[in-house]
Amino acid sequence: MTLPPIFYEAMERVFKSWTTMALAVDQGWGGRDSAGKRDQLRDEVVEYLIAGARKRRIPTHESVDDVEALAVHLYSRLDELFNVESEDGSDEEVAHLCLRLFTTCRAGDLSFAQQFLQVCPTQPQDLSKCQGTERIEYATEEDAVLDKMQGAGISEDGDDAGSCEEDAEDGIQGAGARADPATKGKGGVPPPGAVAASVQAGGELPDTDCDGARRRPKPPPEEPIVDEDGFVSVVKGRRRGGPKC
Question: Least enclosed by CB within 10 Å: which of 13, 70, 140, 242?
């Protein structure tokens, strides 16, 4: 379908002067290529209108249902491309304007497009007077409560996460303060020097090994086994390799 160049010029002016779209591009709501996404949506609308002209009943701006259908398309694509919801009704105004431009230009009447280009500014209004609002919607009330709890630093059990960590640190420091400085080592394990000094001083060997693990008590010696002929059986043990204290 061949449309006059003024139609494409007017469509470009529509999307550049749309305040919601101008805010989305100016503030980068669609990422770095927000301007490219604006042009993409404009081209999608043009294809939407051309495809509608192939139907038995051509969409028109005089039909409320046709305007609403295009407005729904614009609303959903704004959300998908720019993560923004148009709640000022501007999507319906843009849909009505695009349909009227297409209907008149397709019929060969260029007067409306010329009038639109004369009254519509080439640049959008002062964007400093406009602002977007951020709104978070939760699927359930429980999600909203959990989000507020996490923001306040409260765990799901109702305890303050920060106070729990502080209590744990205080407990570790308190245990270290009560320990004997001479036997205090890394991770609560006595240093090797302290163990050697204790043995040389005639003290008893601690019941922990060099890794801090508790020593296993030695099993009592087994009584010799005497067979029927009076011989004693001797079992030879196998030496196991491993670290020595």
Answer: 242
- The answer to whether 130 and 19 have CB atoms below 8 angstroms apart is yes
Q: Which residue, among 30, 18, 99, has the nearest Cα to 59 in the 3D structure?
A: 99
Instruction: Give residue for tokens 């602002």.
Output: 131
Q: Which residues pair with 160 in a beta bridge?
A: 154
In this structure, the number of other CB atoms found within 10 A of the CB of residue 108 comes to 7
186 has a pLDDT exceeding 50: no
What distance in Å separates the CA atoms of residue 127 and residue 148, rounded to the nearest whole number?
33
Q: Tens digits of per-residue pLDDT, 84-120?
A: 888 888 999 999 999 999 999 999 999 999 999 999 8
Calpha distance 159→166 (Å, rounded): 12
Contact of 18 with 25, CB cutoff 8 Å: no
* 119 CA to centre of own chain: 44
> pTM to 2 decimals?
0.54
> Which residue shows structure tokens 């163990």?
195
Q: Which of 81, 73, 72, 66 is CA-nearest to residue 21?
A: 81
> Which long-range contacts link 197-200 to residues 24+ away (Cβ below 8 Å)?
none
